[in-house]
Amino acid sequence: MADNTTIKKKMTIEVVTPYEVFFEGRVESIVIPTLDGQFGIMPGHSPLVVAITPGIARFEADGQSRSFVISEGFAEIGQHVVIIVCNAAEWPEKIDEKRAQEALERAMSKYNSGASTEQQRIYARHAIRRAKARLASAAEWKKHKDDHILD
Question: Which of 6, 60, 116, 150 could form a disulfide with 120 if both were Cys (CB 3.0 to 4.6 A apart)?
Fold first, then answer.
């Protein structure tokens, strides 16, 4: 009798910040935010290095989907290994929404200030993207968590 189960190929993902190895594990796929938009990676991908922008990264592992917020950095992609080096990474359930909202307001104020230099505006633009990603990720996680409570 033939076995109809399929074995999904996996790759190793390692997410590293200056402070810790944020995540290390085997996954079927990952989608990361890049300068050119969302970038999907599966096992066997051609080797590549891409710049990462602040946003939400998502991965699939053992039939489960998981997301986290990521700041600027880069990803080194190999056929069976993806190494992400970024300034910060955070699970949505660990996000302090009040702090993220305050960071968004500070960054927007800095961005819109006539006294800001071009370099300060670039930094503020990244801070705005990161704060918005943190708020969106936390809201998505809360909604998903609440949906499961109702089940």
Answer: 116
Task: Estimate to the nearest angstrom the gap between the alpha carbon of 1 and the chain centroid.
Answer: 43
Of the candidates 89, 101, 87, 36, the one whose C-alpha atom is nearest the C-alpha of residue 59 is 89
Res 40: pLDDT: 96
Check: CB of residue 123 under 8 Å from CB of residue 106.
Answer: no
Query: Do 112 and 79 belong to one domain?
Result: no
β-sheet bridge partners, residue 48 = 77
The pLDDT mean for the chain works out to 88
CA distance 151 to 137: 21
Query: What is the Cα–Cα distance from 74 to 97, expressed in whole angstroms?
Result: 26
144 and 73 in a single domain? The answer is no
Q: For residue 56, what are its two tokens?
A: 């939400």
Domain extent for 103: 95-150
